[in-house]
Amino acid sequence: MKKLILMFTLLLFTFAAFAQGVVALMNRSGDFFDTLTAGKFEAATTFFDPSLQAQVKAEHLQGLWEKLNAQMGKYESAEIIQSKTEGEFFVVVVEGKFEKDTQRFVLAFNKAEKMVGFYLQPKAAATAYTLPAYADTANIKQTEVKIKGTKNDLVGMLTTPKTGSNFPVVILVHGSGPGDMDQSVGAVKPFKDIALGLAAKGIASIRYVKRTLVFPQEYTGAFTVKEEVTNDVLAAINLSKTIPEINKKQIYVFGLSLGGMLAPRIATLAPDLKGIILAAAPARKFTDLIIDQNKYMFGLANDTTQATKERFDKGLAMIETTRLNKLGNIKPDSLILSLPASYWVDLNTYDQVATAKKLSQRIMIIQGGMDFQVSEADYKLWSTALAKKSNVNLKFYPELNHLLTPQTEKGTADQYKNPANVAETFINDLSTWIKAGK
User: Is this model's pTM higher than 0.85 or not?
Assistant: First the structure.
């Protein structure tokens, strides 16, 4: 089966009305391309709604697929780079990778999870990541590493200055959803920027592919963030202790979004950590965050029709079902908004702020004012609880968004289509803070 890479948009979900089926629709997109690759064009049409089946026949798909392979070489893989709602439909943008080139496809699904649209996106619409100006690549060394798992290992990247030793090291921890080692979202790669920026300042880092991206089959039953996140972070911390160039007394964990929320828990599990960095970290429950995100997007849509309002209210009611503090009669693997009940109970019984207050390790908390995914309200909660602690440093960046790139407005996930880099001011502040801990 060809690998389909799922990229996260927002924190967990796009819009409440489709929240419960997002993962299923993304998986159907992958299955569709697998079917085309296998040459089963008649079977591929079964993914279509009857209206699309009437327009696009098996022979049309075969002709298109053979033409693409002739022009761009053999098909290799597909990557979901965007997902969004368009009225009653859910739209997925997939970048197909061929031997010689790439091609973007747009797939539109109805509520019955049948495709009602399938077309090629013009090449001009694509954008590409660009290296930040502060990336001194001539003096940076990148070495592939393995993050050990109980079933499967993960591919990771150790980034260090080309010369020297005794470097502090930062373990980079993903936000919600599947993610590659760069935490790529569209044309933005925040973890790659941070790794290169820190290396230019004499600080090493380890980043790796998130397990849910490459081994999704491991997450079909009951699980929690332990299996999704923390086990691999602890393995990366242990790995860093075996690397000769690393200062074993200067190991930090940098968590973005969900990763930041979990950083205090990670620090309790790894008490020899020097410190943790919480970037755009939720201080509230995830349910509150998802509701805020959906209200924000609903407001931007400016659709005041009664039908849309009813659909939105129904979506909010679905989100409210995630406020589980115990399983009771619910089975641990029962899906609630595409995640098992065990996952929600674990998150809802975890108090990240209270956990952070008990820590003696160094803590840095940062938040962007242009972040529409985690708000300033969360930053204020962190500040109220921790600002007076001597081991805590807080900083608010009015111009930064959720991925720590400068923006002029909050906007939507569309901003991630445009190449942008993590702000150099933040890279400088982070490196200065880390070095001050020696």
Answer: no
